[in-house]
Amino acid sequence: MHCPHCKDPDTNVVDSRLAEDGRAVRRRRECPKCGHRFTTFERQELSNLIVVKRDGTREPYSRSKIERGVWLACTKRPITQDQIDKILGKLEEKWAANKKEVASSTVGMDVMRELRKVDHVAYIRFASVHREFKDVEEFKEELGKLFK
Question: Do 27 and 81 fall within a single domain?
């Protein structure tokens, strides 16, 4: 693992522990050259999971793509990386269980359902992109459902 500070290719693992309820390994690393410490995570790759998009095209599952969308929805909200990791870990297990493919609509709806439990503002932000609200009325309708 290259040091993100000085780019030296040799770093040492200082500490390892399980994270995300045993679904990942968190490693604390240190660069012997510059002394910089940083954290890495090791997760099982879901490379065999294929996402079927609305237009019928297929692409390999990308955790980073979903995580980026979730973080955009969670901007300036009191949500931690740990909460997002738990949400995505739980959903990845669900999607990978006995399936080779998952519809992008399923991915979006599942993420929305989990965000709704954590933060209503993040949920509405994510829903507005995923559900492609056409106008303010659709947005109001979703807000009405949220607070019933």
Answer: no
Mean pLDDT of the chain: 89
Q: Are 126 and 73 in contact (CB under 8 A)?
A: yes
Does residue 76 share a domain with residue 96?
yes
pLDDT tens-digit series, residues 38-79: 999 887 766 688 999 999 999 999 989 999 999 999 999 999
The total of other beta-carbon atoms located within 10 Å of residue 64's CB is: 7
Asked if 80 and 52 sit in the same domain, the reply is yes
List of residues 6+ apart from 91 with CB closer than 8 A = 107, 110, 111, 114
Write down the pLDDT at residue 43.
77
* Residue 24 domain boundaries: 1-43
Same structural domain, 56 and 107 = yes
